[in-house]
UniProtKB/TrEMBL annotation:
The electron transfer flavoprotein serves as a specific electron acceptor for other dehydrogenases. It transfers the electrons to the main respiratory chain via ETF-ubiquinone oxidoreductase (ETF dehydrogenase). Its cofactor is FAD. This is Electron transfer flavoprotein subunit alpha/FixB family protein. Belongs to the ETF alpha-subunit/FixB family. InterPro entries: DHS-like_NAD/FAD-binding_dom (IPR029035), ETF_a/b_N (IPR014730), ETF_a/FixB (IPR001308), ETF_asu_C (IPR014731), Rossmann-like_a/b/a_fold (IPR014729). SMART domains: ETF (SM00893). Heterodimer of an alpha and a beta subunit. Pfam families: ETF, ETF_alpha.
Length: 330
């Protein structure tokens, strides 16, 4: 990609449906911000043509590619090998100089393969992407969130973006006549990985932890009572998170753990209840836009990064906070 040239962007959406998930909308909004024009924004989905057409209907795009398959991507995951083949085909067809995807394991795996094939750069866990004079400027947090780096990509670059770091315009995504999806048939010579079983995750009715715009997390200070976390999360429409101490104590499932050895989240709002704020936990959440901490220890490290801190016992503060949130939503 030459300096000062407007990039051509390929957005990879692995699992889509109508309406589009917030993370998919964020990727498309970012693509339109970075690209020179709506015609320079192209989309590849791992879904079939009908699902793709319904999900993207009414959006102004340059072209749309989809998997030539009868299975919907939101019903069954596409293996990384096949997804990489699809991405490579769409990238070469469009001449994309920037490939954007969500910061999910399956897509990151596929995009890494594509970066090797295209001799492109690869940047994961991005928290900001901008068009710069020298090419594309990408921000990411490193060293357990202690530093934010910025680098410029002067050639083709593959980027995975964390959820909730891009705001979708209030006016919505650019509207227009959506191009007809182009099915892509990519043969896979002998599956190297065989899926032997699929088990649906039990739904809690709350948003997914890594994609939620708001997260309420509990720690050791709750003394085993996670009901306050769940009540506040439901009042805010938030996901439930936890510190490693809470998970190790068996108070909640491991999937809720936030931190260096758990999930990394970047919500618009992160509420920490009874969490001291050890470095291991901060590494997974300190890129949140707004951090609220409630802890009875005034010297807790979490207050060093909190935008709003409340020194008090969570059992006294949270019930009143839940009532106020519920009243505000009525």
């Amino acid at each position: 990609m030459s300096p000062n040239s407007a990039p051509t962007v390929l957005v990879v959406l692995d699992r889509i449906g109508a309406p589009l998930r917030s993370t998919d909308q964020q990727l498309l909004a970012l693509a339109h911000t970075v690209a020179g024009s709506p015609e320079s924004v192209h989309v590849l989905t791992a879904a079939d043509a009908d699902t793709t057409r319904n999900a993207l209907d009414g959006l102004h795009l340059g072209s749309v590619f989809c998997a030539d398959t009868d299975s919907n991507a939101h019903d069954a995951a596409v293996p990384a090998e096949q997804l990489a083949d699809l991405i490579e085909h769409a990238a070469r067809q469009t001449g994309a100089t920037v490939l954007l995807a969500s910061d999910a394991g399956e897509v990151s795996d596929a995009l890494a393969r594509v970066a090797v094939r295209l001799e492109a750069g690869l940047i994961t866990h991005a928290v900001g992407v901008d068009a710069a004079e020298a090419g594309i400027s990408v921000q990411k947090s490193v060293l357990a969130g202690a530093y934010t780096t910025r680098c410029a990509a002067e050639s083709t670059v593959c980027i995975t973006v964390k959820p909730n770091v891009v705001a979708v315009p209030e006016t919505g995504l650019p509207a227009g006549t959506t191009p007809k999806p182009q099915p892509v048939e990519v043969p896979v010579s002998g599956p190297r990985v065989t899926v032997i079983e699929r088990s649906p995750v039990e739904s809690t009715g709350r948003p997914a932890l890594t994609e939620a715009a708001a997260v309420v997390a509990g720690g050791r200070g709750l003394n085993g009572d996670f009901s306050l976390v769940e009540q506040l999360a439901d009042a805010l429409g938030a996901a439930v998170g936890a510190s490693r101490a809470a998970v190790d104590a068996g108070w909640t499932e491991h999937a809720a753990q936030v931190g260096q050895t758990g999930a990394t989240v970047s919500p618009q709002l992160y509420v920490a209840l009874g969490i001291s704020g050890a470095l291991q936990h901060r590494a997974g959440m300190q890129t949140a836009q707004t951090i609220v901490a409630i802890n009875k220890d005034p010297d807790a490290p979490i207050f060093e990064i909190a935008d709003l801190g409340i020194v008090g016992n969570v059992t006294s503060v949270v019930p009143d906070l839940v009532q106020r949130c519920e009243k505000a939503r009525q």
